[in-house]
């Protein structure tokens, strides 16, 4: 893979030049207050932004947040992100109240060397996500007009064929930012020749979301540990009662087939925490997987499962984890995710946390991020990379 890097751009001198940076600032916001609840993605782009600021570039940052429908929607404004980004950079971030309109043009025009501007949410413009190449291209033209060079540091978006990710780099000299470069280097270790034993932990709610990565990983991993809501479809495939737990009925046969040809690599829970309802204060107990009551639902893996999974992880030299083991947002059902996360930190292994809810869980549970080898910022992008798919944003940087 041949991609020019931020260091290549800095070597060409960027002082006084406008550099358009595609960042992934898609942070979670509190629905009541609008406050940022996890600023991990903002922190992740600081090394790239800091280097550009120090070099005297006029830095124009663009990002999406949430899934607005191609028109302005106040609940998805990047305004709060501009404030937090300024705090972390230690200097004001000039915020444009539109993406490519009058506010954006004047905000960019007024930038001095070493200053940073943030454009309003890219997805407030239908052209960002359009499948029509002409519409997407027209929006990319407007964005590209704000830069003399382009840096992609939004790994969480590189699997999307969107204007700011795929079309803009065709219009400007382009490089990979520090974050994107690190993500690709780490994930290439997993798809190349990982040190063994190589153990993968998959959780989350749906088998259908992870089927492609399971298919891709099965031939290469030594053990595949499956928890989260998706485990109940596998348990059903073994003929077990799963009560009212999350179940993808149309995936039961697929799971049975995966179990049959896994050669014993797949490990499933042996006990689960079941509750009367999906609620933080619901009555709950731990039961064996062959004793799940028909009227109850599983919301976490149990302590015996944590012990078994931890034993497998303790032997590993390479670990990839994507997806929580239970509903970690509710304290009563967080022990499984915490237990597995702690086991990963104790293993003498190179560990990668595959973004999304897994990364959120690490921070929400107060775990030391530095005790993991790498915490990815891109859940979907990480999985698609491991599946061997071509990621549009990476392909655009290679061209």
Automatic annotation (TrEMBL):
InterPro entries referenced in this protein's UniProt entry, alphabetically: Phosphoglycerate_kinase, Phosphoglycerate_kinase_CS, Phosphoglycerate_kinase_N, Phosphoglycerate_kinase_sf
- Which keywords, in A-to-Z order, does the entry hold? ATP-binding, Cytoplasm, Glycolysis, Kinase, Nucleotide-binding, Transferase
Against PROSITE patterns, the record matches this protein to: PGLYCERATE_KINASE (PS00111)
Q: Where does this protein hold substrate?
A: 24-26, 41, 64-67, 123, 160
Which molecular function terms from Gene Ontology are attached? Answer: kinase activity
Q: In which pathway does it act?
A: Carbohydrate degradation; glycolysis; pyruvate from D-glyceraldehyde 3-phosphate: step 2/5
Per UniProt, subcellular location reads as: Cytoplasm
Catalytic activity entry: (2R)-3-phosphoglycerate + ATP = (2R)-3-phospho-glyceroyl phosphate + ADP
Instruction: Report the EC number(s), separated by commas if there are several.
Output: 2.7.2.3
The residues that the entry says bind ATP are 210, 298, 329, 355-358
Domain of life of the source: Bacteria
- Specify one Pfam family: PGK
Its assembly, as annotated, is: Monomer.
Regarding protein family, the annotation reads: Belongs to the phosphoglycerate kinase family.
UniProt protein name: Phosphoglycerate kinase
